[in-house]
Write a structure and sequence with these properties.
9-stranded mixed beta sheet, 423 residues, 29% strand, 8-stranded mixed beta sheet
Length: 423
């Protein structure tokens, strides 16, 4: 009888997703209008039958705790759970997590009562849908104590990933962490026997940061001082053990940067998105909000995802995400906008108080035009604003109540943009 413990690595400070991670952990960042990033790996685990799940985090974890507690409530008979394990001080260690392997090492004590036979480790900032049970079966069939999930990438993309050399039997013989664009890694190209068909220009195998360990190997490997799986633990294991590569040929995207996050969101609005949320056999789970249906009054919408509880009036919206409880006033126009919505509605009393303070209401005001931007939760954008509508290049940086990252304008959580503002 096999017993698998799933570990979702929540990441560190999430600097690449800043300012979306200014007040929340990276896994808690809203995605796709109604989800959180962490819902992706947790749903993959649940759909694959692995329902004993720990989520590791240490920065700004309050909203993540709240989301997990409200969303993943397993019944008594399933034996399932999804629990946060934040960095903690103990008699044996008092510091922060120093890397992916160090994070797992420091919370290993919490796994002892489960007596697991295997550990499944997944990343908390990737977009994909994978049958992890198939990966687990391939792991058992391989007789290897470690299996690493891989995806094919181009030589250009290979620069930023851990790249693996494999033989014709999918055994990993060498591992190289982020080789850069100059180094010759032509001997790392994937053998034709592994893929079984042409891979086009995607001739290299990149680690997806998804691992299945035999419990004994995991526990032994973490007895040392190595802090990172990719840079230290995996290369060390390769010198002593056989390691299997599980080649995943489906859609996979690292959404750990503002640009990749923005692009992945907008792709969801396309007619045939690369990632399909509309899969009843392998759904993506999230919090049940019990919100009313969205209300659309005299609107023009084209390739738009509108979540629950929105009120949109006399507006034109193209290729955009409209998150939960979003209020968009008459005459507004959105193009290429990722709007995360709001945590609450404002009643008449609060709106009157806003008017006295000279603060816009939560949502997007009358006549405002926005193009190519991310609008974080509870943002207040006044009437007749012009955001991102000119074609000029903008330098990255922080500009008071907004940011520009990777060329994308980001209005942070709870920000207020006064009426008539031009960005």
């Amino acid at each position: 009888m096999y017993k698998v413990i799933s570990i979702v690595l929540g990441g560190g400070k999430g600097t690449r997703l800043y300012p979306l991670t200014k007040d929340r952990a990276k896994p808690a960042v809203p995605f796709g209008g109604k989800y959180r990033i962490v819902d992706i790996p947790i749903s993959n685990c649940i759909n694959s039958g692995f329902k004993q799940i720990y989520i590791l985090t240490q920065f700004n974890s309050a909203s993540l705790h709240l989301h997990i507690a409200k969303t993943y409530d397993f019944d008594t008979f399933s034996g399932g759970f999804a629990e946060i394990l934040a960095a903690e001080q103990t008699l044996t260690h008092s510091g922060w997590f120093e890397g992916t392997a160090d994070a797992v090492r420091k919370i290993m004590v919490h796994f002892a009562n489960h007596n697991p036979t295997h550990y499944l480790i997944v990343s908390g900032d990737q977009l994909y849908r994978m049958n992890l049970a198939d990966m687990f079966q391939k792991h058992l069939d391989s007789k290897c104590p470690l299996t690493i999930a891989c995806t094919t990438v181009t030589r250009e993309a290979a620069s930023a990933f851990g790249i693996m050399k494999v033989d014709a039997k999918s055994r990993i013989t060498e591992f190289q962490e982020k080789p850069g664009p100059v180094k010759d890694i032509s001997d790392y190209k994937v053998p034709r026997e592994v893929l079984g068909h042409g891979a086009g220009d995607k001739e290299y195998l990149a680690s997806m940061g998804i691992y299945i360990f035999d419990a004994a190997l995991m526990e032994k490997s973490l007895q040392g001082a190595d802090n990172d799986f990719g840079k230290e633990v995996i290369p060390s294991i390769l010198t002593k053990h056989k390691v299997n590569a599980y080649v995943f040929e489906g859609y996979w995207e690292d959404i750990g940067t503002i640009k990749s996050f923005y692009d992945a969101n907008l792709d969801l609005t396309s007619i045939a998105p690369a990632f399909n949320f509309y899969d009843e056999d392998m759904p993506i789970y999230t919090q049940r909000l019990n919100l009313p249906a969205s209300k659309l009054n005299y609107c023009s919408l084209d390739q738009v995802l509108a979540a629950e509880g929105c009120i949109i009036t006399n507006s034109s919206i193209h290729s955009s995400i409209v998150g939960i409880r979003t209020i968009i006033e008459s005459g507004a126009s959105l193009d290429g906008v990722v709007c995360m919505g709001a945590d609450y509605y404002e009643g008449d009393d609060r709106k009157a108080a806003n008017a006295k303070k000279g603060v816009p209401n939560i949502g997007i005001g009358k006549g405002t035009i926005i193009k190519g931007a991310i609008i974080d939760k509870n943002a207040r954008i006044g009437s007749n604003c012009r955001i991102g509508i000119d074609a000029r290049e903008r330098p990255d940086g922080e500009f008071g109540n907004y940011y520009i990252v990777d060329g994308v304008i980001v209005i942070p959580k709870n920000a207020a943009i006064q009426p008539g503002t031009i960005i």
